[in-house]
Amino acid sequence: MLIEQLINGITLGSIYAIVALGFTLVFGVLGIINMAHGEIFMFGAFIGVVVTSTFKGPLWLAFLAAILVTAAMGYMLERFALRPLRNKQGVSHLAPLISTIGVSILLENLSHHIFGPGNHPFRASFAEISFQIGSITVYLVQIVIFVISVLLMYALSFWLGKTKAGKALRATAENLETASLLGVDVKRTITMTVIIASAMGGIAGILVGMAFNSVTPQMGLSIGLKGLAIIILGGMGNVKGAMAGGLILGLAETFVVVYGDSGYKDAIAFVAIIVILLIRPQGLFGQKISA
Amino acid sequence: MRKQLKKFAQFTALSSLLVLSACGGNQAAGDEEGKSSGGAVKADIGVISYISGPGAAYGEAITNGLKLAQEEINGKGEVEINLVIEDSAGKQDQALTAAQKLMNSENVTGIIGPTLSTEMNVVGPEADLNGVPIMGTSTTAEGIPQIGDYVFRNSLPEALAIPAAIDKAIEKYDAKKVAILYGNDDVFTKSGFDTMKKAAEEKGLEILTTETFQKGQSDYNAQLTKIKGLKPDLILASALYNEGAVIMDQARKMGIDVPFVGGNGFNSPEVINIAGDAANGLIVATPWYGEKEDDKVKEFVSKYEKEYGKKPDQFAAQAYDALYIMAEALTNAGEADRDALRDALAEIKGFNGILGEFSFDEEGDVVMDPTVLVIEGGAFKEFN
Questions:
Q1: Rounded to a whole number, what is the distance in Å from the CA of A230 to chain B's nearest CA?
Q2: Can the peptide bond before residue B114 be classed as cis, meaning omega within 30 degrees of 0?
Q3: Cys bridge to B320: A138, A274, B69, B95, which one at CB 3.0-4.6 A?
Q4: How far is B109 from chain A (nearest CA, A)?
Q5: E runs forming strands in chain B
Q6: What global pTM score does this model have?
Q7: pLDDT for A227-266, tens place per residue?
């Protein structure tokens, strides 16, 4: 019972973590909160449904298609919603936030039109594979989700810390103009970042579809807000913080149900934000920024 | 020159406005004449429905059912109904705006809708105040017809449906312990929960735990694992079908194989589409059973399937019957008058529609016998 709940919590937490990684990446570089991330995640899930249920395609194709589509959406988001606002005189620093909110509303309604309302089941035989340990049923998907989230975290840390592109990205995050003076192709770096973050959202979308067998046009909003809570919890722009924050939130939500009242499940994330902002405003893993 | 031009522009604008308003007047007068001179009673019926947003599937079914009934009714020639359809998006404020528009500027004789009980709680009093008869086709929460004299419904209230389903389930499975699961952010599912709790207490069932969830949630594993550990004989779930189907899917995957008893919102063929085999063992009481051996029902199902390419659910069926009830009341009233329609509606007794024999009680609430169904082998069957 307890172990099963622990598995539930880790699965949920890993999904939160992958979503939060996408959030944190964009925030780290651009300093903006991408409110459309949840909807891009939702599109990833829908592409998975379309490939596996409508066209009866294999799962790897679903992943590939979802990554391609969400990456393309990331590019369009950057090209049409963010780039026109960058470095413009008189544009408020809140403008990109508002523009991503606009994109999120557009995408939600678009998916409503394309895919229809209501729940779409995710029929992949892979999601049915399970094994029994004593009285506990463990689904392979649950393990895969955890492994993928850890892999993504390490890959991202490695990429940011050790590769040239990652260094360019960090330089861009530090100071856009200086980085460009030093020969970093800032435009390409930013576009790359948004694309990678979106593709990660797409991956998370498929994983959620497989784990919970529930895909709706509205799923983006709540997961987007949770993702936001997690990066505040873990530290804005911090990769390890996103991972830890995701797992903490997933486990906390599960154990509120176990030992408390399931009515407070969703409240945990926001109580956590308030507490963390009061005690450690930079987040668990964040560094103090001297202004 | 410029001044003259401006004057000319003003004049044209003004005169075209005048012409426009004159047109409007003419049209209204024409309508009025049509009512008295022609044999058929002509009436505008407003419809407020949940057409966009997460529950848009309900609105789609409801408007489909209404349009089908409208076609048939108008074809018969006794009554000519014109439907004025407005979207509420499932929101109270939007439903109220739509209702005000229908009552004041569209000048409708009666209103069908809105879809959700939450919406009816704000629209109902307004319609009652304005003296416009309003009939809910899907508002099953407690206290809806009690809002006022002008408020009716033809949707089987949860207070009748749920105890009927629980009774039969207890009888068959000899259930003693139950777990309750409900959506706590919706008046509809919450009122379903109250009814379930009351029914369970009256039958002397032991309630092991009460768990909640929110609309649009996708992960129910934590709640279900907890329920699994308590080993109930039955799970009472007050959920809309979207969430309900996913709950059943996750429960079955986890190895929970006890039957579920659901409320009205859980009763939809979509549950089978979404959950597949996991939907087996869902027990619901319903006013609508599409496989019934009845000519009216068969005809409706085949027509609906031909027109919209899918099987009608109870929302379509209730909407279809609702417009027939409206039509009958209009025929009895003999004119498209709001007060006359209200009185005629209140008089409806023993109406024979696709839902079975239907009457309003003195409060405008439903009097009818529900059918208890269970999902077996991927289809709804009568539960005995």
A1: 18
A2: yes
A3: B69
A4: 31
A5: 41-49, 79-87, 110-112, 134-136, 151-153, 177-183, 206-213, 234-238, 260-262, 282-286, 351-353, 356-360, 366-367, 371-376, 379-382
A6: 0.74
A7: 888 988 888 888 889 999 999 999 999 999 888 888 888 8
At B173, the amino acid letter reads: Y
Question: Which of A135, A139, A253, A262 to substitute to test the interface with B, most B CBs within 10 Å?
Answer: A262
A222 shares contact with chain B (CB less than 8 Å)? yes
- What was the pLDDT predicted at B124? 95
Q: Which residues of A touch B253 (CB under 8 A)?
A: 130, 137, 139, 213
In whole angstroms, what is the distance from residue B38 CA to residue B64 CA?
28
Decide: B113 and B88 in contact? Cβ < 8 Å. Answer: yes
Tokens of B162: 């749920």
- Residue-wise pLDDT for A200-234, tens only, equals 999 999 998 888 888 888 888 888 888 888 988 88
DSSP designation for B369 = P
CB atoms B225 and A8 under 8 Å: yes
Element (H, E) at A254: helix A239-259
* pLDDT over 70 (residue A288): no
CATH topology of domain B40-156+294-368: Rossmann fold (3.40.50)
Q: In what order do the strands lie in the sheet with B234-238?
A: B206-213, B177-183, B234-238, B260-262, B282-286, B371-376, B379-382
Q: Which of B192, B272, B280, B167 is nearest to B210 (CA)?
A: B192
Helix (H) or strand (E) holding B145: none
List the single residue in B184, B216, B222 with the smallest CB-CB distance to A8: B222
A77-129 tens-digit pLDDT: 999 998 888 878 888 888 889 999 999 999 999 998 898 877 888 877 777 78
Question: Which strands, in side-by-side order, build the sheet including B351-353?
Answer: B351-353, B356-360, B366-367
Nearest to A212 among B213, B219, B255 (CB): B219
Domain boundaries, given as residue ranges, for chain A: 2-122+133-279
Please state which CATH class domain A2-122+133-279 belongs to.
mainly alpha
Instruction: Check pLDDT > 80 for residue A76.
Output: yes
Q: Which residues of chain B have pLDDT under 50?
A: 17-37
In CATH terms, the fold of domain B159-286 is Rossmann fold (3.40.50)
Mean pLDDT of chain A: 88
Chain B CA closest to residue A129: B253
How do residues A24-63 score in pLDDT, each as one tens digit? 888 888 888 899 999 999 999 999 999 988 888 888 999 9
* Nearest Cβ partner for B216 among A5, A216, A254: A216
Q: Select from B211, B242, B270 the Cβ nearest to the Cβ of A216.
A: B242
Per-window interface: B 327-356 vs A, CB < 8 A:
none
